[in-house]
Amino acid sequence: KPIIAFHHVNKIYANGTVGLKDINFEIPRGQFLVVVGLSGAGKSTLLRTINRMHEISSGEIRIDNEPISDYKGRALRQLRCHIGMIFQNFNLVNRASVERNVLSGLVGYYPTWKCVLGLFSAADKQRAIQALKRVSLTPKIFTRADELSGGQQQRVAIARTLMQDPKIILADEPVASLDPRTTKDVMDTLQRLNREDDITVIVNLHSVALARQYADRIIGLRAGELVYDQPIANVTTAD
Ligand code: ADP
Ligand code: ADP
């Protein structure tokens, strides 16, 4: 049974731009899916409809066989808690410690003011250490975020999403600003979480070569349309 299913999904932005056009596909639980396509193809839009950062215009998205469009309030917060998201620019609080950034992943479980004031329990801090262990960054726990390399910052962002025990991680161009070495660290981290913790991972990438190294399956978007969908064994250099 798929963890995510798109059924005739269209997204037209308020200014008339077509974001997604009649998207139909299913993502099995535990898949490492890479979305490729040129800039403006709709990759980011696709990702953001899954946690409802963007609302679709028509069609249906199901997660665990439940349509998500009716979710409100608590149900919507819970949906977003179980879907981790990371971005190209990491979105960390630069002047705060790694620990504090990771703990801020508990926003959504706690009222925001509690996170702002840093009112975290010993159990929360233990969880943060565990999350940092999973991204191999425990030695950096008390370092300021902006003193880390880009790849390390992205792994902190991943650890922050792990605080919410996500079933799905959405990664929007997570390595676009990184060099090849730190790119590998970040992609290896996502791969390990996918394989060891059975987290379904969806990554937007520019590089088809990188996609081929990590993906179970690659889908391609062009002008909002799904134009390509292949399991990795069938992807050849001719594609
Ligand atoms: P990609 O991630 O593949 O670069 P996007 O999903 O960001 O593509 O964008 C798809 C299309 O939708 C582009 O034409 C883009 O300019 C447009 N777009 C994205 N976000 C918005 C928005 N909030 N309002 C209007 N148009 C948007
Ligand atoms: P959504 O409809 O998913 O909520 P928004 O309505 O928040 O998206 O987008 C708000 C406005 O931001 C858009 O109408 C557009 O004018 C502007 N905008 C944001 N990103 C882009 C983009 N990539 N291209 C064009 N316009 C954008």
Topology:
Blueprint: E1 2-12, E2 18-28, E3 32-36, H1 43-50, E4 58-63, E5 66-67, H2 73-81, E6 83-86, H3 98-103, H4 112-117, H5 122-134, H6 150-162, E7 168-172, H7 180-197, E8 200-205, H8 208-214, E9 217-222, E10 225-231
Helix pairs in contact: 5-6, 6-7
One adenosine-5'-diphosphate (ADP) binds next to loops.
Give structural notes.
The chain is of the alpha/beta class and 239 residues long. It contains 8 helices and 10 strands. A 6-stranded mixed β-sheet has the order 6-7-8-3-9-10, with helices on both faces. A 4-stranded antiparallel β-sheet has the order 2-1-4-5, with helices on one face. Strand 1 and strand 2 (18-28) form a beta hairpin. Helix 5 crosses helix 6 (150-162). The two termini are 29 Å apart. The model has no long low-confidence stretch (mean pLDDT 93). It binds adenosine-5'-diphosphate (2 copies). One adenosine-5'-diphosphate (ADP) binds next to helix 1. One adenosine-5'-diphosphate binds next to helix 1. Keywords: ATP-binding, Cell membrane, Membrane, Nucleotide-binding, Phosphonate transport, Translocase, Transport. Pfam families: ABC_tran. This is Phosphate phosphonate ABC transporter ATPase. Residues 4-239 form the ABC transporter domain.
